[in-house]
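Lecture notes, continued. The same structure-token format from the folding unit now serves as the input rather than the output. Read the line below as a description of shape only.
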């Protein structure tokens, strides 16, 4: 159980922050960028939940994902050690990724076929889900950069989770647009003659 009694500590005033191991790194470190991007994704999903209206199933799914994202942030915040005790470190699991894949398959099954790329728009919920999707893709790019420099200390499942999540957010955005019937489609070259 986490218990926060004091919000400011002044330990970050010099531009550093503590990782889950206690090691201090600069706030611009790729690991901090990675779990910061996950935090941004979680906040964007929170806004989508606020606008979920009567989409109770989507709301419930997004709320469960918010918990996963805290697990993911904890995973990224704690570099992998060769001798770590799996019971003592919170890591993203394959089961969490499988759950996203199942949700993608389920929600995608009834969507209208796509004939073009989808523009963010339609309903408010769809628009916010597309914002969350693009924020998630940015977090994914941060994790890719981290894995490039610290592959032995970073779980590849973190990247897989974010990749599936951004796909799911796309599918949910279409579902929130009346099953894709209300999608705003890209028309190539539409404004070139104006």
């Amino acid at each position: 159980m986490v218990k926060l009694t004091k919000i400011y500590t002044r330990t970050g005033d010099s531009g550093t922050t503590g990782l889950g191991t206690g090691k201090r790194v600069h706030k611009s470190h790729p690991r901090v960028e990675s779990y910061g991007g996950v935090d941004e994704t979680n906040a964007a999903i929170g806004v989508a939940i606020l606008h979920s209206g009567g989409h109770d199933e989507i709301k419930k799914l997004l709320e469960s994902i918010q918990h996963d994202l805290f697990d993911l942030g904890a995973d990224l915040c704690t570099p992998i050690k060769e001798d770590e005790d799996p019971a003592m470190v919170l890591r993203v699991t394959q089961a969490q990724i499988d759950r996203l894949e199942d949700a993608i398959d389920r929600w995608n099954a009834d969507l209208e076929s796509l004939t073009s790329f989808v523009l963010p728009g339609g309903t408010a919920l769809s628009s916010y889900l597309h914002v969350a999707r693009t924020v998630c893709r940015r977090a994914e790019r941060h994790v890719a950069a981290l894995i490039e420099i610290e592959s032995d200390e970073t779980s590849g499942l973190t990247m897989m989770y974010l990749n599936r999540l951004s796909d799911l957010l796309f599918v949910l955005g279409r579902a929130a647009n009346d099953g894709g019937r209300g999608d705003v489609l890209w028309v190539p070259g539409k404004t070139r003659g104006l």
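Point for the exam: The domain at 27-110+117-181 is CATH 1.20.1200.10 (Hypothetical Protein Ta1238; Chain: A;).
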